């Protein structure tokens, strides 16, 4: 159960929009997950409690907020979403879809017609992920099997019922929607404008400007900094940690943007992983498959690239890629003496000082990730090896960026994950490639250096020997792909045809 003792954690009011009216709870602990509020306080037990770690999707709900005058909807995991993070937003649960007279929403009706529910436990989560897809595609129009699979990447069915659920996804756009079940975007936006701001000085703070955020950090250097809580949420639900003071970076308007400059793009710390990877893929389309494998969609919708980098997990997938791209981070703090924002910039790999440790001052925040734009001669590949193809944590992640001119490797940058206490740069392997002819002998020699460069551990995901072997093999596969060899990747295969 997610329930835990929170008597010592300070509380504050929480208000959000649901079912056409504001919902206000007078005293919600700062670190209380949204799932607890829905099930225990509001008795919305249709939202199920499954894994408690954002993995199974049974707790999926849909959040709506005003963005540039429109209602932006996204599916998230309620089990690891802090309740106060939805202050001022609209919350949709599975109970909200059917009309008052019992007429089903097209998502629900399609699942009934296609026999998409077996034991039924996971069904509410699938319904809500499909509901987000339905609304964001203008009533389920143009939904393909591929787009449905992407939308459902964060939902697991233990009865192996995926085929009928995908059938339902394709059918839902053909079914009529009862008038009472239609989403009235204008009404929701009007409702959101009536909700008051979150408390400024409460135990859960989500400042709306960068300056206010940095001042809050200076005033509360011991507060737990959060973004999407895709990691901190697990510390709460699995490790039973309690946080009397939380500082959420995702409210600062300046940090919710992706900015494009002549030589780099700057991704704010409040930008979701979904939007951050969309920006990276727009610059480098070859990253599309890797982006889809970064967790499930609800996790990408909640988590942020800045949070992933600042957390510094050695098995985080973003950092090897960013290291290979030569990305840097901008750290900021409030300088009280100068009454201004101070900042410094360093290469991403220089941020880390040890396992989940970094060089940030107590009053600093990671505010921007700067990624160089691609060049014409760039060759980039990033590989993730995990037990499960989708929605799984890497055993090994390797990203390689090369500049090859006239058959010679002029420049190489390599990032690796899962092989050291921190995300790592493979400097020795880079040196083994740099200035050498791009041929089989160079690649074999570099692969041997790469295997020897790190001393990975054996754990539940892979043995040390396996990790070392995979590192070298991934470099060899990159060489074969550069030569034009096809059929080397699982995602390129038509699995349904093979079955």
Descriptive account of the structure:
By secondary structure, this protein is α+β, with helices and mostly antiparallel strands. It folds into three domains: 1-199, Beta-grasp domain (Ubiquitin-like (UB roll), Roll), CATH 3.10.20; 206-374, Uridine Diphospho-n-acetylenolpyruvylglucosamine Reductase, domain 3 (2-Layer Sandwich); 378-499, CO dehydrogenase flavoprotein, C-terminal domain (Enolase-like, domain 1, 2-Layer Sandwich), CATH 3.30.390.50. Helix content is 31%, strand content 22%. The protein has a five-stranded antiparallel sheet. It has a four-stranded antiparallel sheet with strand order 16-17-18-19. The chain starts with 10 loop residues before the first strand and ends with a helix.
Count the strands? 19
N-to-C CA distance = 38 Å
Biggest beta sheet summary: 5 strands, antiparallel
Q: Would you identify the CATH H-level superfamily of the largest domain?
A: Beta-grasp domain
Structural class: alpha+beta
Instruction: Give me the number of helical elements.
Output: 17
Count of individual domains: 3
CATH architecture of the largest domain: Roll
| Rounded mean pLDDT score | 94
Instruction: Using the coordinates above, name the CATH class of the largest domain.
Output: Alpha Beta
Judging from the principal axes of the Cα atoms, what is the shape? globular
Residue stretches low in confidence (pLDDT < 50, at least 5 long) are none
According to CATH, the fold-level topology of the largest domain is Ubiquitin-like (UB roll)
Strand order within the widest sheet? Answer: 9-10-15-11-12
How much of the sequence is in beta strands?
Answer: 15-25%
Helix residue percentage? 25-40%
Provide the gyration radius in Å: 23 Å
